[in-house]
Design brief:
By secondary structure, the protein is an alpha+beta fold. The chain contains 4 helices and 7 strands. The protein is globular.
Length: about 150
């Protein structure tokens, strides 16, 4: 059973999971990932969720405000051995509900074009491809999505 807990960006499990995410992204994108690293620093953020199976942290995600109505999904990660088992969907739903309850009307996000599992997750949950937003405009390795929450 998947348990989702709300937390913050200094949570040790979030730090461990995002460290694994960063290693995976470096493997996928090589030195190209260095350009994105600066946009993935999440400090003093109180909108983090962690997915647990038993006591084991297996995935995470967070969101940060873009403006009064829009938030950006960041640092989505699920342990590669557990993908396709509903962990990512549970994280995404928890983030959507939290953002909606916090007054946000829509989500935007960016993922890499070769992260096909992530792309399928977002498409399955009715995210639509949108034009790349800053700082991803013109980057061929990025694909951006958006979804109305209300």
């Amino acid at each position: 059973m998947i348990r989702i807990e709300r937390t913050h960006s200094s949570d040790i499990h979030f730090i461990q999971l995002t460290t694994r995410l960063d290693k995976e992204l470096k493997t996928l994108y090589g030195s190209s990932q260095e350009e994105f690293d600066q946009y993935n620093v999440m400090t003093e953020l109180n909108t983090v969720v962690i997915a647990y199976i038993g006591d084991q942290p297996v995935g995470c995600g967070c969101f940060k405000p873009v403006d009064a109505h829009t938030a950006e999904v960041k640092r989505m990660y699920v342990d590669s051995k557990l993908r396709g088992r509903g962990v990512g969907a549970a994280i995404l739903l928890a983030l959507e509900n939290w953002a909606r309850d916090s007054g946000f009307h829509s989500f935007i996000l960016e993922t890499g074009t070769i992260q096909t599992e992530a792309i399928r997750l977002y498409e399955k949950h009715r995210y639509q491809v949108i034009p790349n937003f800053e700082p991803y405009i013109g980057n061929e390795l990025s694909i951006c999505f958006g979804k109305k929450l209300v």
